């Protein structure tokens, strides 16, 4: 479960992956921008998954 | 903008400023449990009673500072995509908070610790390591407070004032209600501040592109502007990949080592409160990403700041909004400076009281005596920050804040490692801290006070955030020292709780 928290680091620190003109824009936002903004809700969701798992296991 | 006072904007501004001043003083009556009376936990940590919502507003209001609202768009305006490192930074900070901070909270809660340096002393029983962590934090925080003043000064100037009297007056008021109400004052004001900032940014990101012809057009105009001045751009250059990523990672690791963010953590009423906040605080990061875009909108709006990049946001608002909303937006930014400045001064005061006064001057000090000392220190800290801004050039505060980031990162091993394993002992960590600090500081100065350093290996060169490099040196030195010294020096640290 905790490994999920590594995904944002991979997704955001591997800069060449998203620093490109070749991928589509969204609502006028070039890929570089909407991709990074998209990681905000994704990261919150991943943390929530780990949090929920902890609550089930009774983490204090 | 040209020395003319904008009266409508000024009245709206004054109204909101007066509102939060009343709230700040009233906060001393809010939710105070009579039985605790004058206790540092009450003044300095709001009674350790803040639930999920209050913590969300407080940490959000305190981490995303007024200076951020001014400086991030200013950097984006100047250099383009590179300035967006603030976005991955403020995303990656939350997995780190989620993993580390509930443990730190437990360690503090069990023993009644008020500061990170308390936790370090509790773990390692080393006064020198405690002092190293506390002193680093105080020194790194002072320029940060000064920069909040810079942020406030920018909007006060934009209202048409010249001179420093209004800024000094605002800060004296802040100092007085922080003195009387402690952490409850910024916690209460943070509600108003955060709501106002949300309103301003949502209006800006919807209205401004409508006025300027849509986001595609905004990006397009900005792109041409960078091409014309042959600097920056909407994408990073390959040489900027490593600096971008290492600045984001290093800043994320440093963010919750500062006393103002940690004060928000220690004031939470449970570890669960902190975990929930790691889930919900990213909402502010969406806001920050949108705020950063204001730097591009400035091009589309044709705002010209004559090289004074910090004026980009006020100039953009003044150009596009009606006067009353300009006043509202400027008030949001100014109040946005009050919350972090208050929490920073409280965090610094807690550190001084617990890790210097109690440790060296008056070991038998009572909890109410601690509260007295901390209240006075919070005043001294604010006056010091005001003096930095009024007496020294702004560049001095900026340079110090940059160095402060490198320095605070060097406390990471001492504060965090002991929460997870009990292998390192104090002498090794202290040596690592000292070498990391010296390395980072000398590199920053060698580079002419720049945050990144270029290393040449053979024919290749790599540019990295200096703070991250210094942290690696720090950890390696601590590792080697621990292996060489073994367990002969330093008390055995307490095992971390499972």
Commentary on this structure:
The complex is a heterodimer of chains A (60) and B (498). By secondary structure, chain A is an all-alpha fold. The mean pLDDT of chain A is 92. Helices cover 62% and strands 0% of the residues of chain A. The radius of gyration of chain A is 15 Å and the shape is elongated. Chain B contains 21 helices and two strands. A two-stranded antiparallel sheet of chain B has the order 1-2. The mean pLDDT of chain B is 89. By secondary structure, chain B is mostly helical. Chain B is 74% helix and 2% strand. The interface between A and B is large, with 34 and 39 residues.
How far apart, in Å, are the first and last alpha carbons of chain B?
Answer: 58 Å
Looking across the biggest beta sheet of chain B, what order are the strands in? 1-2
- The structural class of chain B is mainly alpha
Shape of chain B: globular
Report mean pLDDT of chain B, rounded to a whole number.
89
Give the topology string of chain B: H per helix, E per strand: HHHHHHHHHHHHHHHHHHHHEEH
Number of helices of chain B: 21
The unreliable regions of chain A are none
Largest interface: A-B, 34 and 39 residues
What structural class do helix, strand and pairing data of chain A support? Answer: mainly alpha
Distance between the amino and carboxyl termini of chain A: 17 Å
